[in-house]
Amino acid sequence: MRPYTYATAATPSQAVGLATNASAYLAGGTTLVDLMKLDVMGPSSVIDINALALTGTTVDSAGLHIGALSRMSDVATDPNVTKAFPVIAQALVASASPQIRNMASIGGNLLQRTRCDYFRDVHTPCNKRQAGSGCPAQQGANRTHAILGTSTSCAATHPSDLAVALMALDAVLTVQSGTGSRQIALADFYQLPGSTPSIENTLKIGELITSVTVPPLAWATKSSYLKVRDRTSYEFALSSAAIAVQTSGSMIGAARVAVGGVGTIPWRLPSVESALAGTTAGIANFTKAAANAATGAKTLSENAFKVTLVQRVIVRALSELLGVTS
Ligand code: SF4
Questions:
Q1: Which atom in ligand 1 lies closest to the alpha carbon of residue 145?
Q2: Residue 10 has pLDDT above 90, yes or no
Q3: Closest ligand 1 atom, CA of 136?
Q4: Tens of pLDDT along 118-165?
Q5: Residues with beta carbon inside 6 Å of ligand 1?
Q6: CA of 137: how far to CAs of 127, 140, 157, 238, 299, in Å?
Q7: Helix, strand, or coil here: 320?
């Protein structure tokens, strides 16, 4: 057993004031408590932030603001979300289980750790958990691992569905530290593993995510999230696609496409977006655009199927969203 201190914070300033380089914030606890039990994470202090007034959504000229302590299930049914950004609601509903969605917070979801089995087993090496110890997934069990953004040090997928939807929508995080607050575009937040897979994002020590802002995008009313997995509930994506499409009749004016389950970070696909813009909605054009999805992919011994799968998921997502059958 590892001893740790427990403290509650009443305000974001108080929370960041309590933070050290060995502390962890406790929100829903659906990741942190699991990983503490497994001895994967061992903070010396736990700061309970559940009393902070960081829940609910608001809408203004800057877009949709989601409090970082909002529960996934609340955001999934929030009218500010379901009408304007169905892709967010669908990504949330596709995540985890109803019980976990009732507990897990939006900020925690974005910070959840990979589901690579080696990472969660302290009896095996893992560069992400213990720098320099090795990556057994490179030669071992890697069927669920990433094909995009990988390195020889790590090929773990990012597990969040929500992050994929937010990546497609150009979301921005607001974070607080002891010196004030700052904003970080989600596109700049997640870090590729490179030679330092234990560094997963650009948060500095003690910084706390307080909200997520989704900029206005009128045509995001036509958006969706499709997740393909080994079972239909309580399972992580083998491949997923978050899409939004601006159409005029059968013509596609613009598109947003990001994919999950295939990248070491939520993976935006600007080449697929540009290939879709200006085309007529149809399976042939969807297939042609989706062919760009796995450009630069590096496969391991068991996950080459994801090269084809991610393209098919994009085509199916577009087909279902736009009601196209041929
Ligand atoms: Fe660890 Fe990443 Fe290798 Fe998995 S893929 S064993 S998380 S270093």
A1: 5
A2: yes
A3: 6
A4: 999 999 999 999 999 999 999 999 999 999 999 999 999 999 999 999
A5: 114, 116, 118-119, 126-128, 135-137, 154-156, 197
A6: 10, 5, 12, 16, 12
A7: helix
